[in-house]
Amino acid sequence: MTPKPSPSRLPMALPRLNALALSVAFAVGGALTGCSQRDMTEDQAVDLLAKRVQADGLYPASRQGECLSFEVEQRLDARFEIAVREKHGGPCPGDPGTGPVLDRFEVQQDGGKLRRYDPIGGAYVDYTAPSAGG
Description:
This protein is of the alpha+beta class. It has two helices and five strands, in the order ααβββββ. It has helices at about 10-35, 40-55; strands at about 70-75, 80-85, 100-110, 115-120, 125. The chain is globular, with a radius of gyration of 25 Å. The termini are far apart.
């Protein structure tokens, strides 16, 4: 009497092996390309926004550079909400006891896309640099 061949367990294990192989491939791919944008820190988001605001000349020269501050108000899964404030005191004009909000922005972690808060519409909208003419 010949023994019956036992059913192979390999077909049942294939989906698990495939999932494991895909997980390893994605992990290695991410390690080779560096940090993903989802790993953006608050400091990186603020730096990106500050550089863009400066490059676009969004505010009058009197408010550029050292007379602006950036405050992360909220970090959500895919974005940072950042307030742009006027700094007062020292070389910056105004009452040192105040720091009015000039603007609010979202910095998307996936690609660093900027969205600016529209207070009239009550929502963030895609940010575009002001035109040279005004």
